[in-house]
């Protein structure tokens, strides 16, 4: 894949800069710092599915990017120039993939990235009150899922133990070597 | 006052030249809003080859936003380029809307080889203030 993409880029781009004095091993991290939860930047190289939000590079070929930065430094980042658009989700289609499977995969990735939710939220302005309410609801939903099923069994036990520990730390009694004892 | 247009051979005939252009690989942009779906087929650089939308397919009003309309729009757009010889394509989907899945399905069914399917919905990093809430 590295060689074919190299050939592709050689035909389109002529090396426009002389090889830099020190070839860097890692591809440039044009990772934009974003506060949104939907634009998570997982740059793990999964051969089938990648979901990314990078401003100039697609890390689906991060592996070949590393290789190319060693082989031909001036063209190592040609990939980043090629895929200039930032995307939220990318799904690489294999050969002869059934239609439903592709759609299911795409939909799942989009849901994981939260694109549609985010879009709906940003359609109209929400004031601070609305935002607080929404965050509260989201937090409740997240915590409920994680801690809900376990709570019913261990609730009383942990609570009582905690209470005891709190009392112990409170220093109600005089220290043992005090003259008053 | 007449501007001196430099005479180049291709300039005068660029209209007819474009229609003959054959592109083996292209990009299909799907813009799926809540009220409509627009499907544009371009080459890899972004120059538009053909486009179609739910509105141009004859649907009007609320029916434009339906997934079936998106399906017909995609089929229309693809039909125009398949005879131009496009085999592989990337798909870029933008916007929320019901047309996303339906158009993707139609593209898949039309027999074009897909390489990537990407979602390029523009996300502000808390930029412009959106319009006020609707009180309906």
Automatic annotation (TrEMBL), chain A:
<feature type="compositionally biased region" description="Low complexity">
    <location>
        <begin position="51"/>
        <end position="60"/>
    </location>
</feature>
<dbReference type="GO" id="GO:0005840">
    <property type="term" value="C:ribosome"/>
</dbReference>
<keyword id="KW-0687">Ribonucleoprotein</keyword>
<feature type="compositionally biased region" description="Basic residues">
    <location>
        <begin position="133"/>
        <end position="149"/>
    </location>
</feature>
<feature type="region of interest" description="Disordered">
    <location>
        <begin position="16"/>
        <end position="60"/>
    </location>
</feature>
<protein>
    <recommendedName>
        <fullName>30S ribosomal protein S21, chloroplastic</fullName>
    </recommendedName>
</protein>
<feature type="compositionally biased region" description="Basic and acidic residues">
    <location>
        <begin position="153"/>
        <end position="167"/>
    </location>
</feature>
<comment type="similarity">
    <text>Belongs to the bacterial ribosomal protein bS21 family.</text>
</comment>
<dbReference type="GO" id="GO:0006412">
    <property type="term" value="P:translation"/>
</dbReference>
<dbReference type="GO" id="GO:0003735">
    <property type="term" value="F:structural constituent of ribosome"/>
</dbReference>
<feature type="compositionally biased region" description="Low complexity">
    <location>
        <begin position="27"/>
        <end position="43"/>
    </location>
</feature>
<feature type="compositionally biased region" description="Acidic residues">
    <location>
        <begin position="168"/>
        <end position="181"/>
    </location>
</feature>
<keyword id="KW-0689">Ribosomal protein</keyword>
<feature type="region of interest" description="Disordered">
    <location>
        <begin position="127"/>
        <end position="181"/>
    </location>
</feature>
<dbReference type="Pfam" id="PF01165">
    <property type="entry name" value="Ribosomal_S21"/>
</dbReference>
<dbReference type="InterPro" id="IPR038380">
    <property type="entry name" value="Ribosomal_bS21_sf"/>
</dbReference>
<feature type="compositionally biased region" description="Pro residues">
    <location>
        <begin position="17"/>
        <end position="26"/>
    </location>
</feature>
<dbReference type="InterPro" id="IPR001911">
    <property type="entry name" value="Ribosomal_bS21"/>
</dbReference>
<dbReference type="GO" id="GO:1990904">
    <property type="term" value="C:ribonucleoprotein complex"/>
</dbReference>
């Amino acid at each position: 894949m590295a060689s074919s993409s190299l050939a592709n880029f050689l035909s389109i781009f002529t090396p426009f800069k002389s090889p830099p004095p020190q070839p860097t091993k890692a591809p440039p991290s044009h990772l934009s710092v974003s506060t949104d939860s939907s634009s998570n930047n997982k740059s793990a190289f999964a051969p089938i599915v990648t979901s990314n939000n990078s401003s100039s590079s697609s890390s689906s070929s991060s592996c070949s990017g590393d290789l190319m930065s060693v082989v031909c430094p001036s063209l190592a980042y040609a990939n980043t120039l090629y895929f200039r658009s930032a995307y939220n989700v990318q799904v690489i289609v294999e050969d002869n993939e059934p239609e439903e499977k592709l759609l299911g995969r795409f939909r799942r990735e989009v849901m994981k990235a939260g694109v549609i939710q985010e879009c709906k939220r940003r359609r109209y302005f929400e004031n601070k009150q609305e935002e607080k309410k929404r965050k509260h609801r989201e937090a409740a939903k997240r915590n409920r899922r994680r801690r809900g099923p376990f709570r019913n069994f261990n609730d009383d036990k942990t609570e009582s133990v905690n209470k005891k520990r709190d009392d112990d730390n409170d220093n109600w009694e005089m220290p043992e070597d005090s003259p008053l004892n | 006052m007449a501007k001196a247009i430099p005479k180049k051979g291709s300039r005068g005939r660029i209209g007819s030249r474009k229609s003959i252009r054959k592109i083996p690989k292209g990009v299909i942009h799907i813009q799926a809003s809540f009220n409509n779906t627009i499907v544009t087929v371009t080459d890899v650089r972004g120059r538009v080859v053909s486009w179609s939308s739910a509105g141009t397919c004859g649907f009007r009003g609320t029916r434009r936003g339906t997934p079936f309309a998106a399906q017909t729009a995609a089929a229309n757009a693809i039909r125009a380029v398949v005879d131009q010889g496009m085999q592989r394509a990337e798909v870029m989907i933008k916007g929320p809307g019901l047309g996303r899945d339906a158009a993707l399905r139609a593209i898949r069914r039309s027999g074009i080889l897909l390489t990537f399917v990407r979602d390029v919905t523009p996300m502000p990093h808390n930029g412009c203030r959106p319009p006020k809430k609707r009180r309906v």
